[in-house]
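Ops channel
N.P.: pipeline sanity check, posting one input/output pair.
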């Protein structure tokens, strides 16, 4: 008898849940193919023929907090001179390239051997030749970014000039 009473209460509870306001009604079956919107992918935003390369940049190399997507920058490679303890050589690797994105938190450090150096990731919009040049430079040098002023001295969008070098004896 008790089991019958519990069964009736359970059945009433289930019926109440099914008939409750806000319960989902069954959706009609799919009879025609539906066009689904294409996902908003980051790769859809990259212009045809261009590449996005991300580099870690020393935050103290300039005021990177002011660099925003759409800005124009020069990319500088700074390398140590073999055989000279603290000497460096700098060279402009790319001129007048577009900034695609800037990521990184203030105070974020990279590696256990550089606790005071802060790094930011800067994604640059490059053509295939520029992407290859930057990839090679990253392996051999520290990368610095120089923000270009509006209407400042430019060689033209991505135009190559003879490389400029600067030597620091240390």
């Amino acid at each position: 008898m008790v089991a019958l009473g519990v069964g009736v209460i359970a059945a009433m509870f289930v019926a109440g849940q099914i008939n409750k306001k806000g319960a989902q009604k069954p959706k009609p079956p799919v009879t025609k193919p539906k066009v689904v919107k294409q996902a908003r992918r980051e790769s859809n935003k990259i212009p045809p023929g261009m590449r996005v390369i991300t580099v870690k940049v020393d935050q103290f190399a300039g005021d990177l907090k002011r660099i925003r997507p759409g800005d124009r920058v020069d990319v500088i490679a700074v390398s140590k001179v073999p055989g000279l303890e603290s000497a460096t050589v700098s060279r402009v690797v790319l001129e007048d390239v577009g900034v695609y994105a800037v990521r990184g938190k203030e105070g974020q450090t990279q590696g256990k051997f550089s606790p005071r150096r802060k790094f930011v990731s800067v994604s640059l919009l490059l053509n295939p030749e520029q992407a290859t040049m930057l990839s090679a430079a990253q392996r051999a040098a520290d990368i610095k970014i120089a923000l270009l002023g509006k209407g400042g001295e430019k060689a033209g969008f991505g135009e190559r000039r003879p490389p400029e070098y600067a030597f620091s004896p240390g």
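N.P.: looks fine end to end. Residues 50-151 form one domain.
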